[in-house]
From TrEMBL:
The keyword Repressor does not apply. This is Polyamine aminopropyltransferase. Catalyzes the irreversible transfer of a propylamine group from the amino donor S-adenosylmethioninamine (decarboxy-AdoMet) to putrescine (1,4-diaminobutane) to yield spermidine. Residues 473-482 have a biased composition (Low complexity). S-methyl-5'-thioadenosine binds at Q283, E357, D391, V392, P422.
Amino acid sequence: MIDQSHASARPGSPPPRGGSGGAGTPPARLPVGHGTGRFLVLAGVFVCAACGLVYELELVAVAAYLAGDSVTQTSVVLSVMVFAMGVGSLVAKRLRRHAAAGFGAIETLLALVGGCSAMALYAVFAWTGDRGGVWADGPRCLLVVFSLVIGLLIGAEVPLLMELIQRIRRQDAGRAVADLFAADYVGALAGGLAFPFLLLPFLGQLTGALLTGAVNTVVGAALVLGLFRRDLSRRARRLLRAANTAVLAVLALTAVCVDDFERAARHAVYGADVRVALQTGVQEVVLTGGTDGRPLKLFLDGRLRISGRDERRYHEALVHPAMTGPHRRVLILGGGDGLAAREVLRHPDVRRVDVVERDPEIARLARRDPALAALGGHAYRDPRLRLATADVFDRLRRVPPAAYDVIVCDLPGPAATAGAKPYSQEFYGLARRALAPGGRLVVHAGPVSARPRAFWTVEATLRAAGLRTAPYRAAAPGGPARAPRDRGSPRDRGFVLAARTTPALRLDPRGPRPETLTQAALTEQARAVGRTRVPGLPPSTLVHPRY
């Protein structure tokens, strides 16, 4: 009995019945041996799979950075891309008789679309996005379009690559699929590791995507024009060569202009007075103003974190109600900018302040940037302050029981996925354990008027952790409707004061007097918050975030 796979490997022999190649499709005429050719195709599969996954991760990263809510953005990108890959596989069946030319055209288009996708999304966000940081319909639609197109092209790769492999040497379909998928999955692993550990930290999102597109172009062109050139007509070779040269030129020219583009887009998003812009290992940090009388603003991942116009109102409301009572030992979770520490250190009875900040660049800026350091009252010069760079959840797990009189959670606010972790019942249980008898915990719980359900979920989660609560807020004079209109600045900010026994919401009459907060205003704002209560909300946990 003759093995069909070996028999059909001879040049000029007809394909076996039931083979995965098209009936009557001649074997490939290769410039190298069949074994070498097959290895080169699988190497191409490896590289193309790595590039495809990088495009996917780029879309997820850019979308999560610009739009927030990484779970939603990841779900949209992955679901649309997987659906499109299935459609692409079906469409590619029509190209099997022209597998080499079809694969070359697909890789050229994929390199162009995938390589430029991050820049296009950022451009649309910068020049048409909502001034409050929430995506307008244009960027949302563009994210779906890119996910759909890239998914279609990636899905079309597999049937064509299978056809090319089978044309080199016919073999059992199961073995061919196993070899193809093995190269594909290992390539995906390489791309998945290269993106966070190489491309993102060393090149950034935009340049990393452009370089990936260039690699995709070169490998796709080399595979088709080098290995399968005899399967293409002279005209097809010229067209493919010209298309790949044009794509490489576009990607190279775009890469040269990346820095200028980033500056222009950054000015469109943040204004013309950007002084510091850096990508740390944690987030993008942008600092504007702070000179020539312009208010200082700190943006983290595109969202306004500090505004010199109203930061004192926020930090005084966050800190001073919690300092009524014992406050010799204070823990600040977040707050690497030093502004919460400034308010804590105004109390002379404080003996030690521990600040836990996950991004060391924020603390470095708070020390070295003249405007930010001055705004923070040069808190880092005070010998009572000690800084630890760590994840706040992990650090709180290592805090011994009853270690602190006051814990201040100066965090961005509850959000989906990673942002929900320090607003979970488990986190507040650890904080409760770390509080000394009579100690207090204060939590920034986000805007009340814009997200009342999230605010009251924080309060319900604190109560579920065994703490009694006193919710309140800080708003602009005249109420939330007259709050500052800085881009991304909420109309009001909500807080929850918590303790083992019901905490009295008052200012320490013996402590320093806040500039923007009075006892009457604090009482009135607490009453106003009470009128927004959303009853019956379940607590948020690590395994079931509810924000």
